[in-house]
Design brief:
about 1000 residues, alpha+beta, Rossmann fold, Isoleucyl-tRNA Synthetase, domain 2, six-stranded mixed sheet, 32 helices, about 35% helix, about 20% strand
Amino acid sequence: MKYFHNDIEAKWQQYWAKNQTFAASNNSEKPKYYVLDMFPYPSGAGLHVGHPLGYIASDIVARYKRHQGFNVLHPQGYDSFGLPAEQYAIQTGQHPEKTTRENIARYREQLDKIGFSFDWSREVRTSNPDYYKHTQWIFIQLFESWYNNNSDKAESICTLIQEFEKNGNANVNAVCDDNIVPFSAEDWKSFSSEEQQKILLQYRLTYLAETEVNWCPALGTVLANDEIVNGVSERGGHPVIRKKMTQWSMRISAYAERLLQGLETIDWSESIKESQRNWIGKSVGASVTFNVLPTSNFQLPATIEVFTTRPDTIFGVTFMTLAPEHDLVAQITTPEQKAAVDAYVEATAKRSERERMADVKTISGVFTGAYAEHPFTKEPIPVWIGDYVLAGYGTGAVMAVPCGDERDYAFANFFKGTHGMPAIKNIFNQDISEAAYGEKGGFELVDSDFLNGLDYKSGTKKAIEALEKIGAGKAKVNYRLRDAVFSRQRYWGEPFPVYYVNGLPQMIDKKHLPIVLPEVEKYLPTEDGQPPLGNATHWAWDSVQCSVVSNQLIDNVNVFPLELNTMPGWAGSSWYWMRYMDAQNENDFASEDALKYWENVDLYIGGSEHATGHLLYSRFWNKFLKDRGFAPTEEPFKKLINQGMILGMSAFVYIMYQHVQIVDTSELVKSLKVNKKTYLLSKNIYGDLINKINNSEIERIKEEILNEYIKIGVKSAVWFDAEPLALPIHVDLSCINDITNELNIEKFKAHPLYSDYKDAEFILEDGKYIVGREVEKMSKSKYNVVNPDDICNEYGADTLRLYEMFLGPLEQAKPWNTAGITGVYGFLKKLWRLYFDDNGLNITNDEPTADMYKSLHKTIKKVTEDIENFSFNTSVSQFMICVNELAQQKCHHRAILEPLAVLVSPYAPHIAEELWNALGHEGSVATVAFPKFEEKYLVESEKEYPVSFNGKMRFTIKLPLDLTAAQIEEIVMADERTQNQLQGRTPNKVIIVPGKIINLVG
């Protein structure tokens, strides 16, 4: 009976769907286990074989935990809002909802084909109104909250209003805007409603503010830092500039310390934790205030506040640097410096913050012409601007101490001798002639007034005390983490549940949610620069009827304009794991009982590219919801594993350029056109070309090309070696033999991508065109994508699952090689033959041998340990060893093969179901108890001894392990093989170590 994987897999996939085999219960006496995959975005390209890697790993764990008796929640859904769908809509005119729906259908088909044990009854889509109405509700809760530093948590805005009414804001210790104006309780009561709303906006956890953002003109939207790569948009590669816009923001900065401390309580890789620590960027130091000295054009009192981790170096300050976007720049710049400053500010706006942070080599800046006053010496300090200072980090200003900081040192030396750049002052008893002294030890302060003779620790303490005494500074903890911009100028995103009365935001009541995304004619921004929702004609809020109405009805009395921005892509993905807990709940994002039962995610698997963006925002929202009593735990994800990437094996052909220099430059020659023939070089001939190895084929081509010029009248032309001599281009894998790496030339010529080369001459080696191969990221643009559907059709989903695990450790990157999959497929057929022969099921109820038990229990032990340790690749190896051993032992014994079917089930569930069913069992194997390892089957009762004569092993003998040395000697001496070796001699010595060696000497 043959193994027909297609029939078996289709059968069991239908069974699972019909019987809801993997549906989890919110009411179970079993212990819970929640395993989750990172939210996939359903792109039009569908899945390639790299995508399922993490899903297969999580599915193995989910299935294993079911076998262990857990109530397992293993859901799946789609992060279906986002820029790619919108860009496709702009290009094609199709509604993003339509393309997203079609993409999801394609994803679902592919996921089902691989046999994942997802609970599809809990599927969510962030772009569905029944999902994003809860995202809108969470936004409202953030708006209706403030962060109380005294209780160290978010609280209802009502408690803040109560404090204002009783005591004003003098005693309020909140995370809020800078420059809060103090007021009394009487003042608060005398304020108008609008004045009160404006004050509350300074405290709310989500608020409107003019913010420096990454603006992408080509895409017409703001981009997050993680959506920008090398200064351009990740999507499309468009330029990004810095721009000030009024945006919704969220005070994630309020949670900086809790986000930092929470990392100590969760089981994540140290690299991911370190990424988050760096992003949060905690620094301990001091806030120092410098007064700006008046100039001819600037007389108003102004101060520059800086944060420094080295207040001990206060006497080493020789200049100050502001971020080009700093509010003071335009005010304090002198007329003489204005043109240079304006030009620099404009140029800086074209560089992203990430690019500026990463670029440590370029030194640039401009002197403003203004000076600040040193708080102790009262000396004037020149104020510069430089793009290495960021407006959003700290205060957007630094006090430059070149003797103690490499970047300040380089800046000072670069502008040395120019107007506004003093000489570097050394305040350390160390040499700084070649570099700054950046250590926090090994020095004494000099030329530092009252700090002379002190070290870092004592100098810091004394400097802060002195600053506080004169009111010029104080001790402070600073964080790099900035409030998150939450507005996007896009169409395909969650609408804000916000309308505006006299320019002030008003929240729409929960009972009227969702506020559904309107239809628009165009998905681009409006002609006057408004977001795409500015194209909507039915986008106003009737506060009486409590419904969305026509814009024409706006009267700013009862009908008001709605927010035109939409939420960012991370809005829906910042809480989705909780929706899975109770996905069908119409009233709340999840019931209290469901949240209490599931609590949080036990195992989260996904890519390390989400180290800061998604994971940080998710932790922030979870902590906020915990503060307000809506979430049961502080942290959303107990354990996180980042799967590595499956890399593609790209293929290349090599196009040779015509490197000809025409010496004859007559007008006749200039007007003539040579017939530029294309040559495609096989891999090794290309190698000879770039390595300048003498190759007759290459010389022939060069001569042929030169003759083409001679034919048209060129008297003098020479070949010259310019770079590149040849250009590699990617080839679709369908055009090559993946095993021999030979190009199918006719198929290549017929391929629509390569129509330009149909008349090319192919330069072969040994009659074949061999392509180059290189391991790269699997990508559609590199034509190295392998479709999992093709693998499933030819070899089966179980083969795909096993092979992806077999490639290497889960966390590591590894190359895909389709040629290697046949070995795994052969293993499954060998497994099948343990159960079936040509006549059908071949199973015996006989008692297995000790070796059979040993093979089985070695495998139970190994696989159990591997799954617990997420070492899936070595499990596959052990399965292969086990099946080979059982085949050699001619094992067809039920007592061995029944537990083996359960054992293999998490990895290869379809064949396991079929084998379990063939063994006479009803229902699914999915919840059958996992086999338990028993040590007794691995305890050795016999030992195969090597028998040596004078140290040379001559034969082996199997003996019971409980024999004494004397008993062993008696048996060995009586053995016929021993007598043959001795030839009648008596050995001088018989060395026996029970359980180890037998050696006859002399």
